[in-house]
Amino acid sequence: MRFPLIVTAVKRLWHTDLAADPVAHAWALNLYRAGERHPQTVADYFPANDAPDPELAGLLRRHQADEERHTKMYAALIEGLGGRVLDDVDDGDVYNHQIRQAGGDTFGVREGDSPNERRRKLGHFLLHAHFLEARIAQSVAWHKDACEGLDSGTGTTMAPVIARVQEDEERHVDYTARWAQMLLTGREFHEARDLHRRAEAAANWRFSARQCRTWVARHGQRPDRRALYTACAWFMERMAG
Fold it and tell me: Containing domain of residue 146, as a range?
């Protein structure tokens, strides 16, 4: 899941630039919020009723509640910047959706699915969520650092909120990996893990390139940054294939 070092450095810089501009910052927070809100718009996330163990069912319900809480937290931050909270975000700007497009329908439970099929699909959902949450945990860590680097009081107010989201995401990363390995057999687990790792990696390149190009078009005021982020978008598009 590691970026080449140059892309990592550019991403860190990008978060700094986002946090320094209230309009761009509100736009970026709406992207985070769209991902947190995605489970509320679909019927196949957090299938707690299919969990074979009460502990896992409880973790899935807590995860769902965390995402709903994050949606509200991001909304408050956006409004604090004077931005507008957006519910009508294009699917291409929802990271969950991009990953699902890359990985296909692997966890949608259907009427008539056997208990074994439900077990397998739940394992796939957990791995989908694992790689998604791992990427988001890294992204919000960079964003928290950017907020802490601001001179104004806004960053001081925002950083602790972003830190709480990061803590939740890291907890999600842990339990999803642990339970996926418990639910799936050895071969099932390795094949599913590889599928979802590849899907998330491809989606990451594609999504990141799209957002770089959007930033350049809407918020890129400095010529040096426009050139840098345009080049980075080009590189990531080639990596996505």
Answer: 5-240
CATH number at residue 226: 1.20.1260
Which amino acid type is present at position 9?
A
Q: Could you tell me the two tokens for 114?
A: 């056997």
69 close to 172: Cβ distance less than 8 angstroms: no
Please tell me whether residue 10 adopts helix, strand or coil conformation. Answer: helix
Place of tokens 């400095």: 222
Six-digit token pair at 139?
């992204």
Q: Is 68 in a helix, a strand, or coil?
A: helix
CA–CA separation, 81 vs 26, rounded Å? Answer: 6
pTM of the model as a whole? 0.93
Q: Which residues have a Cβ under 8 Å from the Cβ of 117 and sit 6 or more positions away?
A: none
31: pLDDT strictly greater than 80: yes
Average of pLDDT values for 71-91?
96
Total domains, the chain: 1
Determine the distance from the C-alpha atom of residue 123 to the mean position of all C-alpha atoms in its chain, rounded to a whole number: 19
Cβ atoms of 145 and 14 closer than 8 Å = no
Look at residue 1 in the predicted model and tell me its pLDDT.
Answer: 43
How open is the CA angle 84-130-104, to the nearest 5 degrees?
Answer: 85
Tokens 């799936």 locate to 184
